[in-house]
């Protein structure tokens, strides 16, 4: 540092470093720059006092203003919920089957239902509500327990085969493979079932077995019965598959899907919105005031 | 030469205020005209009304950012048609090329906003403080009550002009009368106040104080222009072969042979709004406003010499005249291959845009098939696909549209407006004025229909009978 000297051309002192004849002037920082720097220091001190800043062992300092990003999110969520309140109240005040009379309300309900569906229903029914084997497709026009708004709301509220809910949909198909029918007879029944939708030639033995064992629930023509949740066997839609093997397996030892009763988990308005959304997917049926017993779909 | 060790290191040239002298002449009058026209356009355009019917704003020129519409008299531009605006900008660019290659920096000299507002502010200076000499005296005078009062008055006028300029800018983005009312009653959006504040400040500073500094140090355009001008471009030139050696009128009268036409009266420097001496040759500070031509012509007239010692001339012609060639009329410099080529391109883009504007459809349709699930098997075996149709109506009135299926034999459709029981191959729907409507459509085809392409055709049910179509896919089992 012995080489500090005054630079002749500028009159400024050098810092004393020299490399191949190149020296550096010890020019002071511009005043505006220094002041900006000092102000940032003051600002930083104020910031650390006012806002969460210093990490400690378990949690950071909280700051005297009490602000947190999580708190802000909660606040914004509350505001959003408060803004939704009048609309939710309006939906809550209307019976679900009357929702379509009010286009704006129905649209709001469908939107709300879509959001609730993404959270609660897609795990089984899929993001597009198309279901999969064993999980009903909600886009089509085949309904086990009815497809009008009120029936859908009922199914969502009480579920299917839910212990603890007295009003849950209950149906139990006997396991015909455990001593009721032989496997040859089950094959014949399966052939008859396929013939109902024109996929196989009919056989008399199968038809007779069907009339004796199956028609009581599924109907003589196999068109099902919604009051007992018996599926329509004469249409193109199969919950557990439509091949001969699938049908035989289901007759031998039937599977029974279960659906939670959402009545205890979701509030009635959310359920109403879910019903509106499911109904809007394209297969919803019109609500008829006095529901006819076991409305059946015409087979093709 | 100074010794390198004692070189005066300064990259900053101290600002010298330009006090340009008042001058009258053809170019000054042309500048007045351009100033009046450009300022009238800028301040007045938002107040022109244009009847578009009950569903659209009635302001002739409006950039409606909130609704994403751009209105310009009979033309309405949607965001997806922004290429029209891009085309206009390209035309503006090529227009500048054209002007620059023909008449040099005419843009800088006459119609650049910086020039126009600087000119306006210099007239304010002259109005308040008097002409060049009075202003220079006032500048040099010590601060006293009179000087403070003069400055306060002048800067207040600067501020009013700046505020008016900023205020006019925001009128292009909202209904002018409504916005004016909202602005003064404190109900306008914050962006309006901020924009006015910023533009008031920039006008005040750039027009009131920085002036020629903007042209010389900040603006990229002079640099670009020097690359676009060539020896065939008109530019303001001092004819040194005629003027030099310069000498005072008295000396020149005594010995006419020893002196040129320039009597070194300094008028060309005094009137220059950027404070340069044109006699030093073409330079970046020259905005070619030609006020020095007016000044010199006047002096030449007074001393009985021909006009045009300083004049618009191309470098090529300057060389020829210098060598004793006959002067060529300036207008001949305008017509040459380069300017013709620029004009052709400029005109072609303009015509193409006019053609595109005249032929664009005011109805459009797009179809987005549902992807999850792609198709739906119904209980009778038929196959249903769902689509979200976007129907665009660019007319300023509600319209009825008819949507029909093209192809897909045996298929019918219904929508969220009509029930499945009314399904058919064509349905009607209304689209509000000047908007895009969304419609959910369910298309159902008989059992065993294979996956295939088909069309949605839309026809407007009015006297225009506009048509649009879109091809989309119908998914079916086995299609994946």
Describe what you observe in this structure:
The complex is a heterodimer of chains A (about 300) and B (about 475). Chain A has helices at about 30-50, 70-95, 105-120, 120-125, 150-160, 185-195, 205-215, 215-220, 245-250, 270-280, and strands at about 15-20, 20-25. Chain A has about 300 residues and is mostly helical. Chain A has 3 domains: about 1-75, no CATH class; about 85-165 and about 260-280, Orthogonal Bundle (Cytochrome Bc1 Complex, Chain D, domain 2), CATH 1.10.760.10; about 185-250, Cytochrome c-like domain (Cytochrome Bc1 Complex, Chain D, domain 2, Orthogonal Bundle), CATH 1.10.760.10. Chain B folds into 2 domains: about 5-360, no CATH class; about 365-475, Immunoglobulin-like (Sandwich). Helix content of chain B is about 40%, strand content about 20%. In chain B, strand 13 (about 450-460) and strand 14 (about 465-475) form a beta hairpin. In chain B, helix 4 (about 115-130) runs antiparallel to helix 6, helix 4 (about 115-130) packs across helix 8 (about 190-210) and helix 6 crosses helix 8 (about 190-210). Chain B is elongated and about 115 Å long. The interface between A and B is medium-sized, with 25 and 20 residues.
């Amino acid at each position: 540092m012995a080489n500090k000297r005054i630079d002749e051309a500028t009159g400024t002192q050098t810092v004393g470093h020299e490399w191949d004849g190149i020296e550096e002037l010890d020019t002071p920082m511009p005043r505006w720059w220094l002041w900006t720097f000092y102000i940032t220091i003051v600002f930083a001190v104020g910031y650390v006092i006012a806002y969460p800043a210093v990490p400690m062992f378990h949690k950071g300092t909280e700051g005297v203003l009490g602000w947190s990003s999580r708190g802000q999110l909660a606040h914004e969520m509350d505001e959003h919920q408060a803004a939704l309140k009048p609309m939710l109240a309006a939906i809550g005040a209307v019976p679900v089957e009357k929702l379509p009379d009010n286009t704006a309300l129905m649209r709001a309900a469908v939107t709300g239902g879509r959001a609730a569906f993404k959270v609660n229903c897609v795990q089984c029914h899929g993001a597009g509500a198309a279901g999969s084997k064993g999980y009903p497709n909600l886009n089509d026009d085949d309904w086990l327990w009815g497809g009008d708004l009120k029936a859908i709301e009922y199914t969502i509220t009480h579920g299917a085969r839910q212990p603890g809910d007295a009003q849950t949909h209950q149906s139990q198909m006997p396991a015909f493979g455990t001593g009721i029918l032989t496997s040859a007879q089950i094959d014949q029944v399966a052939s008859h079932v396929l013939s109902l939708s024109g996929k196989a030639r009919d056989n008399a033995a199968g038809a007779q077995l069907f009339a004796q064992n199956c028609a009581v629930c599924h109907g003589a023509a196999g068109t099902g019965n919604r009051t007992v949740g018996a599926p329509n066997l004469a249409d193109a839609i199969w919950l557990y598959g439509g091949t001969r093997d699938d049908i035989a397996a289901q007759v031998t030892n039937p599977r029974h899907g279960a659906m939670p009763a959402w009545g205890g988990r979701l509030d009635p308005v959310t359920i109403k919105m879910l019903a509106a959304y499911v109904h809007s997917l394209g297969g919803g049926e019109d609500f008829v005031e006095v529901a006819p017993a076991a409305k059946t779909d015409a087979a093709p | 030469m100074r010794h390198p060790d004692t070189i005066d290191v300064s990259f900053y040239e101290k600002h010298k205020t330009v006090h340009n002298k008042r001058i009258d002449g053809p170019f000054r009058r042309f500048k007045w005209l351009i100033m009046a026209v450009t300022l009238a356009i800028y301040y007045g355009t938002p107040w022109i009304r244009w009847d578009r019917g009950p569903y659209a704003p009635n302001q002739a020129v409006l950039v409606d950012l909130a609704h994403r519409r751009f209105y310009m008299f009979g033309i309405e531009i949607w965001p997806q048609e922004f290429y029209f605006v891009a085309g206009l900008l390209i035309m503006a660019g090529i227009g500048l090329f054209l002007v620059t290659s023909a008449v040099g920096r005419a843009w800088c000299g006459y119609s650049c906003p910086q020039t126009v507002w600087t000119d306006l502010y210099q007239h304010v200076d002259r109005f308040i403080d008097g002409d060049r000499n009075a202003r220079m005296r006032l500048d040099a005078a010590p601060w006293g009550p009179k000087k403070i009062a003069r400055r306060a008055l002048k800067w207040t006028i600067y501020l009013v002009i700046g505020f008016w300029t900023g205020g006019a800018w925001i009128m292009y983005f909202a209904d002018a009368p409504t916005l004016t009312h909202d602005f003064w009653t404190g109900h306008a959006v914050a962006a309006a106040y901020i924009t006015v504040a910023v533009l008031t400040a920039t006008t005040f500073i750039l027009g009131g104080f920085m002036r020629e500094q903007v042209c010389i140090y900040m603006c990229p355009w002079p640099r670009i222009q020097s690359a676009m001008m060539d020896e065939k471009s008109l530019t303001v030139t001092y004819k040194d072969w005629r003027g030099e050696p310069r000498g005072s009128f008295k000396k020149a009268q005594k010995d006419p042979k020893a002196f040129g036409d320039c009597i070194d009266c300094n008028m060309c420097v005094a009137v220059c709004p950027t404070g340069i001496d044109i006699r030093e040759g073409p330079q970046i500070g020259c905005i070619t406003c030609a006020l020095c031509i007016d000044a010199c012509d006047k002096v030449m007239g007074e001393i009985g010499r021909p006009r045009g010692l300083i004049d618009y001339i191309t470098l090529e012609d300057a060389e020829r005249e210098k060598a004793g060639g006959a002067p060529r009329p300036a207008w001949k410099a305008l017509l040459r291959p380069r300017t013709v080529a620029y004009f052709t391109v400029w005109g072609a883009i303009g015509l193409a845009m006019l053609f595109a504007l005249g032929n664009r459809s005011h109805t459009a349709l797009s179809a987005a098939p549902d992807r999850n699930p792609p198709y739906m098997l119904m209980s009778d075996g038929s196959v249903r696909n769902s689509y979200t149709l976007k129907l665009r109506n660019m007319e300023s009135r509600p319209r009825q549209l008819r949507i029909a299926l093209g192809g897909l034999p045996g298929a019918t459709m219904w929508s969220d407006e009509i029930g499945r029981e009314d399904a058919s191959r064509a349905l009607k729907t209304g689209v509000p004025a000047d908007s895009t409507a969304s419609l959910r459509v369910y298309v159902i085809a008989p059992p065993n229909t294979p996956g295939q392409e088909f069309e949605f055709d839309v026809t407007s049910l009015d006297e225009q009978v506009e048509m649009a179509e879109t091809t989309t896919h119908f998914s079916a089992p086995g299609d994946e």
